[in-house]
Amino acid sequence: MPVFVKKLLTWGSVAFLIYFMAFRPDGAAQLFKAIGGLLMAMAQGLGDFLTGLMT
After folding, report:
1. What whole-number distance in Å separates Cα of residue 9 and Cα of residue 46?
2. Exposure winner among 23, 26, 39, 55, fewest CB in 10 A?
3. Which residues cross the membrane (predicted)?
């Protein structure tokens, strides 16, 4: 992928996140809360897997 396209997509994503947080803060908070919950569930599952391997 050309460097220009990567930069354009990156800056477009950053601009969208700023817009989303500025004009829909409740929705943005719920989104980040859901992402955090998903990451915590993944970490818990990995921990359970590793614990199962050790016992």
Report:
1. 32
2. 55
3. 32-53
- Cα distances from 39 to residues 33, 42, 47, in angstroms, run 10, 5, 12
Provide the token pair at 53.
């391997």
Phi-psi region of 2 (alpha: psi -120 to 50; beta: other; left: phi over 0): beta
b/e per residue 2-20 (b: at least 16 CB within 10 A): eeeeeeeeeeeeeeeeeee
Rg (CA), the chain: 18
pLDDT in tens, 10-48: 999 999 999 999 999 999 999 999 999 999 999 999 999
The label of the residue with tokens 């354009």 reads: 8
